[in-house]
Specification:
This protein is of the alpha+beta class. It is 26% helix and 39% strand. The strands form 3 sheets. Strands 11, 12, 13, 14, 15, 16 and 17 form a 7-stranded antiparallel sheet that branches. The chain has a 6-stranded mixed sheet with strand order 6-7-8-3-9-10, with helices on both faces. It is globular, with a radius of gyration of 24 Å.
């Protein structure tokens, strides 16, 4: 399958990717998740062969992809802007890659029909893509990528232009298609909900490095750093100074003092980041309610000190409440 080894890339003299390595296994969907400018799309372009790395290698089943041109790599690529041909029909768009390979007309018809069935567009063959909705156009783009039966699919923010309800619908369908076809895939997004829905494994990119890797559940339950916790919105990240006594570290914060038990070796006066997650039991914090916003089935409550919690019932703004938190150490702040 695909393996990236120590990929590095500079942009305008600044490091964009710093020795990035990962694999994509058979039938696996990985998600490259990170903020804009983190190098996600550049990694995709390197895999596709659209630009070379400054250092490192992309391998397929152990063979270096560098000498293989993009059109010969047998990878499918789906973009946010669809990249369809407006003067062609749905069938002609879906068949484009197959015709470039000079496949027989009968095989092209079979493969296009197969791909359009997968994306729920059977019967749309003769329609112009300009007459379709945004969601339907993205389905055509997906069908075009699926028709050649690629050995790898790549998605670059494919649903960024769609509204929330349509995005959720297409995500569920896309996940089902990937599982049904067993085609390995790389999905690039800055949207955490997309990543959690589509990915078997998430790779979080920050400042050119993969800072966290794991299943959606692993990344959410154990962020392992303050940046990941903040980016994912896992809980409240609070910073403070370590005070060592009897071999134990007590972190002094604006919200109070918290004793932490962790595998890190903290020094006296060291700045430490803590993750506070609301819990049925744990360290109790009293704080003033500063704002309350309805958030679907719960209320998002902002407390003094920047703490944010979700509650089933809305407290009064200005009141003081007591909340129990489970405290985890995230290491150096």
């Amino acid at each position: 399958m695909l393996a990236l080894e120590s990929i590095s890339k500079h942009y305008e003299g600044q490091p964009l990717l710093r020795s990035v390595s990962f694999t994509v296994d058979a039938g696996e969907t990985i998600c490259l998740l990170g903020a804009s400018g983190s190098g996600k799309s550049t990694l995709l372009r390197i895999v596709a062969g659209l630009e070379p790395p400054d250092a490192g290698r992309a391998l397929w089943d152990g063979a270096d992809l560098a000498p293989i041109p993009p059109h010969a790599r047998d990878f499918g690529l789906v973009f946010q802007d669809y990249a369809l041909f407006p003067h062609l029909t749905v069938f002609e768009n879906a068949a484009f890659g197959l015709r470039m390979r000079n496949l027989p007309a009968a095989e092209i018809r079979v493969r296009v029909a197969e791909a359009l069935t997968l994306v729920n567009l059977s019967g749309f063959e003769a329609r112009r893509v300009t007459d379709l909705s945004g969601g339907e156009q993205q389905r055509v783009a997906l069908a075009r990528a699926l028709a050649p039966r690629p050995r790898l699919l790549m998605f670059d923010e494919p649903l960024g232009a769609l509204d929330r309800s349509l995005k959720e619908e297409l995500l569920d369908e896309l996940r089902a298609i990937l599982h049904r076809t067993h085609i390995p895939a790389i999905y690039v997004t800055h949207d955490q909900e997309e990543a959690f829905t589509i990915a078997d494994r998430i790779l979080l990119l920050h400042e050119g490095f993969i800072v966290r890797e794991g299943s959606p559940a692993q990344v959410w339950n154990d962020p392992q750093s303050a940046w990941v916790a903040r980016f994912m919105g896992v809980g409240n990240v609070v910073e403070g100074q370590c005070q060592v006594s009897g071999g134990r570290c007590q972190v002094k914060t604006a919200m109070g003092n918290f004793e932490v038990r962790c595998e890190h070796r903290h020094l006296e006066g060291e700045n430490v980041a803590l993750l506070l997650k609301p819990s049925a039991s744990g360290e109790r914090v009293r704080a003033r309610v500063e704002d309350v916003v309805f958030n679907r089935e719960q209320f998002k409550v902002r407390l003094g000190g920047g703490l944010v919690i979700l509650m089933d019932d809305a407290p009064e703004i200005g009141s003081e409440i007591s909340v129990a938190f489970r405290v985890e150490c995230l290491g150096n702040a």
